[in-house]
Amino acid sequence: MDYADITLEEKQTVLEELRTIKEQFAARDWFPGSSGNLSVRVGDFSPDSFHFAVTASGKNESVHTPDNFLFVDSSCEPCETTKLKPSIEALIHAKIYRMTGCSAIFHVHTVFNNLLSERFGESGFLQVQGIELIKELGIWEENTSIRIPILPNHADILSIAKLIPSALNPDIPGILLRNHGIFAWGKNALEAKHHLEVFEFIFELEYRRLTLG
């Protein structure tokens, strides 16, 4: 589908979803400074051609303005004439869309995901076991153990994006970036939000477990 074929109603629905979720995450202090970014795919999907609305670069996510988001193509080029630039991490979003076919990706920086991703960064994953909310990721085995991938935090975003295919676990809808933040995704905005909330609960619980010894 060409961008021109996406209806105004579809675009407005996506932007409203993003604004609502941005406000909810900001209320939790998940966007310190101008950190974090959100995106939702719009229109039809193929790995070679898709479009998504994504956070504009340099915006304070705790402040609501009409120019918080713009639409880009699968190469992260703006679909309309605009002075806005997509977040540089849109390149990571695009790679995740291409590899998973998901419809929404949310990225936040929190104290707990930073601490744990740094603590376990050398191993390349955070392993957690026996946490009830793992079931909320669709994994129902009793006392199950999961590994959440951790990628190195290179200054070159393209270098990070190139590592994503080998790190992806189809059962785990998220990737940690070391000492940086979490990217979580889902089949729609509600599911991506749900997954992100689950991951953040797991991170805080695991951190407190470690501090208790």
Helix content: 25-40%
What would the principal axes of the Cα set say about the shape? globular
Count of distinct structural domains: 1
Provide the residue-averaged pLDDT: 93
Contiguous uncertain segments of 5+ residues? none
The largest pleated sheet is described as: 8 strands, mixed
EC number: 4.2.1.109
Organism: Paenibacillus segetis
Pathway: Amino-acid biosynthesis; L-methionine biosynthesis via salvage pathway; L-methionine from S-methyl-5-thio-alpha-D-ribose 1-phosphate: step 2/6
Family: Belongs to the aldolase class II family. MtnB subfamily.
Report on this structure.
The chain contains 5 helices and 8 strands; from the N terminus they run αβββαβαββαββα. The chain is of the alpha+beta class and 213 residues long. It has a single domain, classed as Class II aldolase/adducin N-terminal domain (L-fuculose-1-phosphate Aldolase), CATH 3.40.225. The N and C termini lie far apart (53 Å). The relative contact order is 0.14. It is an enzyme of class 4 (lyase).
In short:
The protein is α+β, with helices and mostly antiparallel strands. The chain has helices spanning 8-27, 90-100, 111-119, 157-167, 189-212, and strands at residues 37-46, 49-55, 69-73, 104-108, 125-129, 145-151, 174-177, 181-186.
Question: How would you summarize the topology of this molecule?
Answer:
Elements: H1 8-27, E1 37-46, E2 49-55, E3 69-73, H2 90-100, E4 104-108, H3 111-119, E5 125-129, E6 145-151, H4 157-167, E7 174-177, E8 181-186, H5 189-212
Parallel strand pairs: 6-7
Antiparallel strand pairs: 1-2, 1-4, 2-3, 4-8, 5-6, 7-8
Helix pairs in contact: 2-4, 3-5
